[in-house]
Model the fold of this input.
Amino acid sequence: MSNTWIMLGQRWAFDPFIAVNLLLVSVAYGWAWRAARAKAGWSTWAGISFYAAITVLWVSYLGPFAAWSHTFFVAHMCQHLLVMMVAAPLLVLSNPVTLAFVSLGGSGRRRMAAILRGRAVQVLTNPWLTWIAFAVVLTGTHFTNFYNLALTNHDLDTCVQQPLYLIAAVLFYFPLIGSNLQPRRPTHAVRLMSLGLMMVPEAVTGAVLYFAPHVLYPYYNTIRPFGPDPITDQRLAGAIMWAMAMIIDSGWMMLAAVEWFADEERKSRRQDAQLRQELLAQSQ
Done:
């Protein structure tokens, strides 16, 4: 198995369309970051988070996982986990919405504020709806013929499936972690609950792939140049989804818990300061 991973790493894919778009987005964020730092300062960690996300997307879309995703299901699964459960939350932690707001001028901020207060944004940031969307994308693409069709159609894979994974994941994590501007943040308890419940469709998907008695995607039922046979490949992909998704989700839950604790600490300090002021006023 170790030789298989070495051989997988020796081949990389390259798609000029994806590469150019990742570079353009990186330049745009860098420009906005510079503008925000000139006006009111901007978190260095947010910038690091963004460029870490771009690096993960570059490896996922242009690296060995993309090169072998049409040969080995395990390569697709690693790509899928990196995009949905690593790159997407890192993008959210880079606070792109807040950055755009800070870097804009007065009229731009007013227009953006109106959009953020709109009904569409309220729906798109509802944690229950985003959870459903994430779960539907995750299970719908794997439990229907959609994924097998995407393997045979480059445009369906590149222009529909891959963006769908990233968009659904960004919308899911957006109201749960980070400090992006949004009309209504869910409570910390709801954020933790939503992150915990996401383990359910992930575990179900991984279990179905692992215990399936036959290859679920006929496209993979072919002779490989090396590595595991199709059914072993599918079971390995299911095991990775089942185990790694639990581990990664636990990490984001810990982050949400830390944010909850920090928020409670800030509230406690404000209350203590207010109480001291009241006591000082009464003693005079």
About this structure: The chain has one domain: 8-283. The chain has a mean pLDDT of 85. Residues 8-283 form one domain.
